[in-house]
Design goal:
Blueprint (H helix, E strand, L loop, with lengths): L5 E5 L6 E5 L2 H18 L10 H24 L10 H7 L7 H27 L2 E4 L3 E4 H20 L2
Antiparallel strand pairs: 1-2, 3-4
Length: about 160
């Protein structure tokens, strides 16, 4: 499973130019398998920051949170969506003690459900708005694109690319 075709654009969430797969929904759906494969193949010990296991747990926890965000954005009118502090999550949710297999299963199940909802919502769903306390008005589509870029960044971190 190779790297997907990429396009670059400005991300309203991270305020930088990001790399997003041309087939965003396909890439999101494939990510659990790509993550598991990257974790199986990695032999690296020279990580600058979080270990591969921490990354997998981080992705699993964010996908749970993202699912609630997606549901609120689709169901509510311009909900206020608060940011998360990934370092606090890592410390308080015991990333160093959690089971990798459970994290991968959690990630895969939640990602499949979230992809289904976004696909069912269609283009009108991707255009739905939400409010961020510091970034202002954002769209579900922007969140989805940001997620795809985030996925690629963590895959590259694991494999050293």
């Amino acid at each position: 499973m190779g790297e997907p075709a990429i396009t670059r654009h400005d991300c309203a969430i991270c305020r930088t130019t990001v790399e997003v797969p041309v087939d965003v929904m396909g890439a999101l759906a494939d990510m659990p398998e790509r993550l598991a494969e990257a974790l199986r193949k990695t032999k690296r010990a020279d990580f600058d920051g979080w270990s591969p296991t921490f990354i997998a747990i981080h992705l699993a926890d964010l996908e749970v949170s993202r699912g609630w965000r997606i549901r609120r954005i689709i169901a509510e009118e311009r909900p206020l969506i608060a940011p998360l502090d990934q370092d606090v999550l890592g410390a308080r949710l015991h990333y160093g003690e959690r089971d990798l297999d459970a994290a991968l299963e959690t990630f895969a199940a939640n990602r499949a459900s979230n992809v289904e909802l976004v696909r069912l919502a269609g283009e009108s769903g991707r255009a739905r708005l939400y409010e961020h306390p510091t970034l202002g008005e954002l769209t579900l589509g922007g969140l989805i694109d940001h997620t795809a870029d985030h996925d690629l960044a963590h895959l590259r971190q694991i494999v050293g690319g």
